[in-house]
Specification:
153 residues; mainly alpha
Protein backbone atom coordinates (compact mmCIF):
# COMPACT_ATOMS: atom_id res chain seq x y z
CA UNK A 1 0.00 0.00 0.00
CA UNK A 2 1.45 3.39 -0.98
CA UNK A 3 1.25 6.57 1.10
CA UNK A 4 -1.86 7.85 -0.70
CA UNK A 5 -3.65 4.56 -0.24
CA UNK A 6 -2.79 4.48 3.45
CA UNK A 7 -3.90 8.09 3.93
CA UNK A 8 -7.23 7.33 2.25
CA UNK A 9 -7.65 4.20 4.38
CA UNK A 10 -6.80 6.07 7.58
CA UNK A 11 -9.21 8.88 6.73
CA UNK A 12 -12.00 6.40 5.99
CA UNK A 13 -11.46 4.35 9.12
CA UNK A 14 -10.08 6.74 11.72
CA UNK A 15 -11.87 8.37 14.64
CA UNK A 16 -13.01 11.29 12.49
CA UNK A 17 -14.57 8.94 9.95
CA UNK A 18 -16.28 6.99 12.71
CA UNK A 19 -17.68 10.19 14.19
CA UNK A 20 -18.87 11.30 10.74
CA UNK A 21 -20.65 7.95 10.17
CA UNK A 22 -22.27 8.20 13.60
CA UNK A 23 -23.50 11.74 12.86
CA UNK A 24 -24.88 10.58 9.52
CA UNK A 25 -26.69 7.67 11.17
CA UNK A 26 -28.13 9.95 13.87
CA UNK A 27 -29.35 12.41 11.24
CA UNK A 28 -30.87 9.62 9.17
CA UNK A 29 -32.66 8.20 12.21
CA UNK A 30 -33.93 11.66 13.20
CA UNK A 31 -35.33 12.31 9.73
CA UNK A 32 -36.95 8.88 9.43
CA UNK A 33 -38.69 9.20 12.80
CA UNK A 34 -39.73 12.87 12.47
CA UNK A 35 -43.27 14.14 12.10
CA UNK A 36 -44.11 16.37 9.13
CA UNK A 37 -43.85 19.48 11.33
CA UNK A 38 -40.47 18.37 12.66
CA UNK A 39 -39.25 17.80 9.11
CA UNK A 40 -40.27 21.34 8.12
CA UNK A 41 -38.49 22.80 11.16
CA UNK A 42 -35.39 20.76 10.29
CA UNK A 43 -35.50 22.14 6.76
CA UNK A 44 -35.84 25.70 8.02
CA UNK A 45 -32.99 25.21 10.49
CA UNK A 46 -30.69 23.91 7.76
CA UNK A 47 -31.84 26.68 5.41
CA UNK A 48 -30.86 29.33 7.94
CA UNK A 49 -27.51 27.59 8.52
CA UNK A 50 -26.86 27.55 4.76
CA UNK A 51 -27.76 31.22 4.46
CA UNK A 52 -25.56 32.16 7.40
CA UNK A 53 -22.64 30.28 5.87
CA UNK A 54 -23.33 31.82 2.46
CA UNK A 55 -23.40 35.32 3.90
CA UNK A 56 -20.12 34.78 5.76
CA UNK A 57 -18.51 33.38 2.61
CA UNK A 58 -19.81 36.27 0.50
CA UNK A 59 -18.41 38.81 2.96
CA UNK A 60 -15.06 36.97 2.92
CA UNK A 61 -15.06 36.78 -0.88
CA UNK A 62 -15.14 32.96 -0.86
CA UNK A 63 -17.41 32.74 -3.88
CA UNK A 64 -17.17 28.97 -4.37
CA UNK A 65 -18.28 28.30 -0.80
CA UNK A 66 -20.98 30.97 -1.02
CA UNK A 67 -22.26 29.44 -4.24
CA UNK A 68 -22.43 25.94 -2.76
CA UNK A 69 -24.36 27.20 0.26
CA UNK A 70 -26.75 29.27 -1.86
CA UNK A 71 -27.45 26.35 -4.21
CA UNK A 72 -28.21 24.11 -1.21
CA UNK A 73 -30.47 26.81 0.21
CA UNK A 74 -32.29 26.95 -3.14
CA UNK A 75 -32.84 23.19 -2.97
CA UNK A 76 -34.36 23.54 0.49
CA UNK A 77 -36.68 26.33 -0.65
CA UNK A 78 -37.71 24.09 -3.58
CA UNK A 79 -38.47 21.26 -1.13
CA UNK A 80 -40.50 23.58 1.09
CA UNK A 81 -42.41 24.75 -1.99
CA UNK A 82 -43.11 21.23 -3.21
CA UNK A 83 -44.34 20.05 0.20
CA UNK A 84 -46.74 22.97 0.58
CA UNK A 85 -50.42 22.15 0.25
CA UNK A 86 -51.81 25.46 -0.97
CA UNK A 87 -55.40 24.23 -0.98
CA UNK A 88 -55.40 23.44 2.76
CA UNK A 89 -55.35 27.02 4.02
CA UNK A 90 -55.92 30.54 2.73
CA UNK A 91 -52.29 31.66 3.10
CA UNK A 92 -50.90 28.84 0.98
CA UNK A 93 -50.71 30.76 -2.28
CA UNK A 94 -49.03 33.72 -0.58
CA UNK A 95 -46.45 31.46 1.02
CA UNK A 96 -45.80 29.77 -2.31
CA UNK A 97 -45.24 33.20 -3.87
CA UNK A 98 -42.83 34.07 -1.05
CA UNK A 99 -40.89 30.86 -1.68
CA UNK A 100 -40.75 31.74 -5.38
CA UNK A 101 -39.39 35.18 -4.59
CA UNK A 102 -36.84 33.75 -2.15
CA UNK A 103 -35.67 31.24 -4.75
CA UNK A 104 -35.19 33.94 -7.37
CA UNK A 105 -33.40 36.16 -4.85
CA UNK A 106 -31.03 33.30 -3.95
CA UNK A 107 -30.22 32.71 -7.61
CA UNK A 108 -29.51 36.42 -8.05
CA UNK A 109 -27.48 36.56 -4.83
CA UNK A 110 -25.31 33.81 -6.26
CA UNK A 111 -25.02 35.09 -9.82
CA UNK A 112 -24.43 38.72 -8.82
CA UNK A 113 -22.47 37.95 -5.64
CA UNK A 114 -24.94 40.10 -3.74
CA UNK A 115 -24.80 39.68 0.03
CA UNK A 116 -27.71 42.12 0.44
CA UNK A 117 -30.04 39.66 -1.33
CA UNK A 118 -28.84 36.83 0.90
CA UNK A 119 -29.59 38.98 3.94
CA UNK A 120 -33.00 39.89 2.52
CA UNK A 121 -33.94 36.22 2.21
CA UNK A 122 -32.82 35.61 5.80
CA UNK A 123 -35.05 38.49 6.90
CA UNK A 124 -38.01 37.04 5.01
CA UNK A 125 -37.65 33.42 6.08
CA UNK A 126 -36.35 33.63 9.67
CA UNK A 127 -39.79 34.63 11.04
CA UNK A 128 -41.27 31.59 9.27
CA UNK A 129 -38.63 29.34 10.87
CA UNK A 130 -39.55 30.73 14.26
CA UNK A 131 -43.28 30.29 13.56
CA UNK A 132 -42.79 26.63 12.60
CA UNK A 133 -40.84 26.01 15.79
CA UNK A 134 -43.62 27.63 17.81
CA UNK A 135 -46.27 25.62 15.95
CA UNK A 136 -44.37 22.41 16.56
CA UNK A 137 -44.03 23.20 20.26
CA UNK A 138 -47.73 23.98 20.57
CA UNK A 139 -48.66 20.73 18.85
CA UNK A 140 -46.52 18.78 21.29
CA UNK A 141 -48.38 20.30 24.23
CA UNK A 142 -51.85 19.78 22.73
CA UNK A 143 -53.51 16.73 21.32
CA UNK A 144 -51.98 15.16 18.24
CA UNK A 145 -53.02 17.03 15.10
CA UNK A 146 -54.04 15.09 12.01
CA UNK A 147 -51.52 14.79 9.18
CA UNK A 148 -51.58 17.89 7.03
CA UNK A 149 -53.11 20.08 9.74
CA UNK A 150 -50.46 22.76 9.17
CA UNK A 151 -50.47 22.49 5.40
CA UNK A 152 -47.67 19.96 4.94
CA UNK A 153 -47.79 16.33 3.99
Amino acid sequence: MNAQGFAAFAAASGPAATAQRQRAQYTSDAVLSATPVQLVTMLYDRLMLDLSRAEAAQVAGSWLVAGEQLVHAQAIVAELSSSLKIDVWDGGEGLLALYGYASTALINANVHRDVALTREVVGLLEPLRQAWHEAGASLQTSTVAPTGALGVA
